[in-house]
Design brief:
The protein has about 475 residues and is mainly α. About 60% of the residues lie in helices and about 5% in strands. The chain has helices spanning about 5-20, 35-45, 55-65, 70-95, 105-115, 120-125, 130-145, 155-170, 180-190, 195-210, 215-220, 235-240, 255-290, 295-310, 325-345, 350-375, 380-390, 405-415, 435-445, 455-460; strands spanning about 190, 195, 400, 425, 470, 475-480. Strands 4-3-5-6 form a four-stranded mixed β-sheet, covered by helices on one side. The longest helix has about 35 residues, at about 255-290.
Length: about 475
């Protein structure tokens, strides 16, 4: 029972912290504007922006059936529990697996797990609707499964589970493909540069089985949902969606100066997560106590691959792709602390007391200092915007929305909550896309469409006397409507 107290304390305390800062409804906190898209797609059987996130949609829909709070709150809870699971798995990887160099050292595991669980990036994603907390949980679960050593009788079952988990992880976020090389090779490693090809093939086959979750996207599209990015009912449209073709131009779109700036941003983000002492402890664990092992191989591979992708993918929010990097650093912090305690030998008992006391104080300080920067519990901007729009838009208005905040908030209130069915919500930037026009024609059959390329003025003219209104993320306080003729 005593050995279960540290992980129980870890899980309960993190859950309470996350719940205390959890968004109570739709939120724009922590760059969470995409939440309206994800919640609405999950609730209506639709498809969110590329790459579709089929694993996330299934889990989010299950949480939406919970009999508590608003639809958005229920979906936010998925992120909170996924973040708790990710931190708990960090503890189990370090303390409960014989393959860990610090196995049995609960203090090292606890400090590493809290370092990750209270890192500003993971915490910020734990309190909103987004795919990244679940992304971190899949990363930690994949590492744990790769290091777990089963009995001979259950080895084949573990191989299947490893592959299936990787497939479902890719179904949650496409960048999980970066886990595949290290996890599969570590699971099949026999030593002395030899691989167990049966293990590799079995895991790969079940990875393919996990990827079948993507087949749910064209099935969802066949029902003509109101949110139906790409309408992936053909192979070409399916490929456009799941490969993120819409965003591919951002990859490697950097100047030399821009590259240097992003490398500096990477270093600054790392310091923000763990502070200088944490980074130094991680380097001690990685370098000074380095021992060739599957744990070091996996964490180092993941840190390198995800760092390179986040740096070279020229998007304003690519920093969220660093979560697996920070997961690796948290594990190295545990290895560093565990290694130092083992080196201390006979004096380790006194050192443990000092370390535990310092950690307890640091835990309180970090929780208090980071609370305000990630707190989404008081962010009511999206809810207030949506409620105001639903209350003030004229009857039967055609609403042209611009910007993710405005678009996705309107979708949430209009489609997910079913408010103001008299409105027609249109996104001008998507009108040139055939798939979007077909979706609009299915959702709003009463609208008349002008010949040629439809755009706001021609659509407004074809649908008089319906008023036309304009909402933009750049001016959320303004609702501009043309008078009804």
């Amino acid at each position: 029972m005593r050995k279960n107290l540290p992980p129980l304390f870890l899980a309960l305390s993190l859950l309470l912290i996350y719940l205390g800062t959890l968004a109570p409804g739709l939120t724009w906190a922590n760059d969470g504007a995409d939440g309206g898209d994800l919640i609405t797609a999950a609730a209506t059987g639709g498809i969110p922006h590329p790459t579709g996130y089929p694993t996330y949609l299934l889990l989010a829909r299950l949480f939406q059936f919970l009999p508590l709070g608003s639809l958005a709150l229920r979906t936010n809870l998925l992120s909170a529990l996924a973040a708790v699971l990710a931190a708990l798995l960090v503890y189990l990887i370090l303390v409960r697996l014989p393959a860990s160099p610090v196995a049995g050292n609960w203090l090292a595991g606890l400090i590493a797990a809290f370092s990750f669980g209270l890192s500003p990036l993971l915490w910020s994603q734990a309190v909103i609707t987004e795919v990244y907390a679940l992304h971190a949980a899949f990363a930690a679960l994949s590492i744990w499964l790769a290091l777990f050593v089963p009995s001979l009788a259950s080895r084949a079952r573990l191989d299947r589970l490893r592959g299936l988990t990787l497939g479902l992880a890719i179904g949650n976020h496409l960048t999980s493909v970066f886990f595949v090389p290290s996890i599969l090779l570590a699971g099949a490693w026999k030593g002395r540069w030899q691989l167990d090809w049966n293990v590799l093939l079995r895991s790969s086959a079940w990875l393919g089985a996990g990827l079948l979750v993507y087949l749910g996207l064209p099935i969802r599209a066949l029902s003509n949902p109101p949110v139906n990015w790409g309408n992936p009912v053909t192979l070409r449209q399916f490929a456009w969606l799941v490969t993120g073709e819409l965003y591919q131009e951002r990859l490697l779109d950097l100047t030399r100066a821009g590259l240097l700036e992003r490398v500096q941003a990477w270093a600054n983000l790392l310091l923000q997560q763990f502070e200088l002492p944490g980074v130094l402890l991680a380097l001690v664990g990685l370098v000074y106590f380095f021992k060739p092992s599957r744990l070091y191989f996996i964490t180092l591979c993941n840190a390198i691959l995800f760092s390179l992708f986040a740096i070279f993918y020229a998007s304003f929010d690519s920093y969220v792709y660093l979560l697996p990097v920070f997961l690796s650093f948290a594990i190295w912090i545990g290895l560093g602390i565990g290694g130092l305690l083992q080196t201390a030998g006979q004096s380790a008992r006194g050192l443990r007391i000092v370390v535990f006391t310092a950690f307890a104080l640091l835990f309180c300080v970090l929780t208090a200092s980071r609370w305000g920067s990630v707190d989404a519990a008081h962010d009511l901007r999206a809810e207030q915007f949506g409620a105001r729009a639903m209350a003030s838009l004229p009857e039967n208005a055609i609403v042209f929305a611009d910007g993710d905040r405005a678009i996705f908030a309107l979708w949430y209130f209009h489609f997910a909550l079913g408010q103001r069915p008299d409105l027609a919500i249109l996104v001008p930037d998507l009108l040139p896309a055939d798939w979007y026009l077909k979706t609009l024609q299915s959702v709003y059959p009463s609208l008349r469409w002008p010949e040629g390329l439809p755009w706001p003025p021609t659509i407004s003219a074809a649908n008089q006397p319906r008023p036309s209104c304009y909402l933009s993320s750049a001016a959320l306080e303004e609702i501009s409507c043309s008078p009804t003729p």
